[in-house]
Amino acid sequence: MQTSVELLSNQELVIRIRQGDAEAEAMLYERFSARVYFTALSETHSKEDAEDVRAETFLRVIQALRQDKLRSADSLPSFIVGITLNVIREIVRQKYRVDSLEDYEYDIASDRSLEAALLDAETGRALEEAARELKPREQQFLRMYYYDELPKDEIARKLGVKEERLRLIKSRALQSFREIYKKMTKPRK
Amino acid sequence: MTHREIQDGEIIERYVRRQLPPDERRAFQEHYFACDECFEQTQTMARFVAGVRQASRKGLFAENVSEPAPWRRRLFTPAFGFAAAAALALVVAIGWFMFRQPASPRRELAREQQPSPSPGQTRSPEQNTARSASPSPERNERPKLPKLPELEDQRDLLAQNRAPDVLLESARDTSAGGNQLTLPANAGSAILRIEVEPGSPFTGIQFQIFDSSKRLVATASSGKANARGAVAVRIPAQGLQSGKYLVKCYGVKGGQSELIGEYDLNIRRL
């Protein structure tokens, strides 16, 4: 009988995996795969590295669960984060010869790689549509804040607006983008 | 990490923009592994920021910033110019009118009482003296123009407040002991300053402060350098104890960053 992944708690997943349930393992992957991939991408800025991290992480997690190495099912998310970050460190150390993530200064080109990985067609279109609802000064704020990375007080001074207003602009633009993106990516029935 | 802390600390945005110290970063990662809503918001924010940067790079956002003119430049706008000209004309008119009037009622009265000299008759020395003896107080008084206050650079204002500050210099430029910063016990913040090359292309400078264990303890960002090439940022002093720190400075332009300097910093907490 097919059980929906949302219905099984972490505890039930852990128990089933310990019993060798392959379906539970697939469910575990489905539940945490996006998080592992996103975390790896945020740290490495590389799609290829993020996919390697994901594969290696789940290999280790499932092996550990089969061998009953998890003390408490409540700590399953934390357990997976820990393994994810360990795998990331190993890959970074192996590839880039640094000792810690903090020492790892990914090169400038990898910022573009992260953006490319995060940007799908819908993101670009949703952003353009959300931006059309903004006044020119509000667009300028977004550019100065996220692209030029200027501090808020300087932006407020340059645009002649109060800092509190900048917070509202940001919040409105983000909300608008979220709604448009959701509409664009909603699965069609 | 609670949702309240996440909201108040703008954790999601700071995570996406890599502005969290390592321990907070890890704490938030653990949170979103267990929280669907926060994970969804984090992904949305990451896409949003990536989208804004791409749109900015493509020039899809409005470029020109019509910065409100500082008060000094506002003086020379046409509207103010007309007003200033009218005021000046009025001052001149009033001044001319005042200087043209008799200096004092007494002299006027005296003049009325004295017969005016007939043609050919000169005034007595006393009359001349009386005429010139007491010059009009108004005649010597010049209208006082308002003194224009000096325009202060915002970064000078920053430097003039009471937070302890230090100008960071590279190892070869500092005396033995490196850069020193003394923090009083009640110091809430400190100011770090560096000097960059004139004409620096960066639109901002990001400061990262690492302790002796190479842990990132504070970050701060500034705008571009002022005309003198000076950059200053304020950092919270709470997490800074006595000890040795490393300050890394990154020039930021176009969403990309470049390491431009590293500075040793010795902090002494009173």
The percentage helix of chain A is over 70%
What fold name goes in the CATH topology slot of the largest domain in chain B? Answer: Immunoglobulin-like
CATH topology of the largest domain in chain A: Rna Polymerase Sigma Factor, Chain: A
CATH architecture field of the largest domain in chain A:
Orthogonal Bundle
Report on the architecture of this protein.
- The complex is a heterodimer of chains A (about 190) and B (about 270).
- In chain A, helix 1 (about 10-20) packs across helix 2 and helix 2 packs across helix 4 (about 75-95).
- Chain A has 9 helices and no strands.
- Chain A folds into 2 domains: about 10-105, RNA polymerase sigma factor, region 2, helix turn helix motif (Rna Polymerase Sigma Factor, Chain: A, Orthogonal Bundle), CATH 1.10.1740; about 120-185, Winged helix-like DNA-binding domain superfamily/Winged helix DNA-binding domain (Arc Repressor Mutant, subunit A, Orthogonal Bundle), CATH 1.10.10.
- The radius of gyration of chain A is 21 Å and the shape is elongated.
- With about 190 residues, chain A is mainly alpha-helical.
- Chain A is about 75% helix and about 0% strand.
- By secondary structure, chain B is of the alpha/beta class.
- Chain B has 3 domains: about 5-60, no CATH class; about 70-140, no CATH class; about 155-270, Immunoglobulin-like (Sandwich).
- Helices cover about 40% and strands about 25% of the residues of chain B.
- Chain B has 10 helices and 8 strands.
- Chain B has helices at about 5-10, 10-15, 20-35, 35-60, 70-75, 80-100, 105-115, 125-135, 135-140, 155-160, and strands at about 165, 180-185, 190-195, 205-210, 215-225, 230-235, 245-255, 255-270.
- In chain B, the strands form 2 sheets. In chain B, strands 2-8-7-4-5 form a 5-stranded mixed β-sheet, with no helix packed on it. Chain B has a 3-stranded mixed β-sheet with strand order 1-3-6, covered by helices on one side.
- In chain B, strand 4 and strand 5 form a beta hairpin.
- In chain B, helix 3 crosses helix 4.
- The longest helix of chain B is centred in the first third of the chain and has 23 residues, at about 35-60.
- Chain B starts with a helix and ends with a strand.
- The model of chain B is unreliable at about 120-125, about 125-145 and about 145-160 (pLDDT under 50).
- Classes of the chains: A mainly alpha (about 190), B alpha/beta (about 270).
- At the A-B interface, helix 2, helix 4, helix 5, helix 6 and helix 7 of A face helix 3, helix 4, strand 4, strand 5 and strand 8 of B.
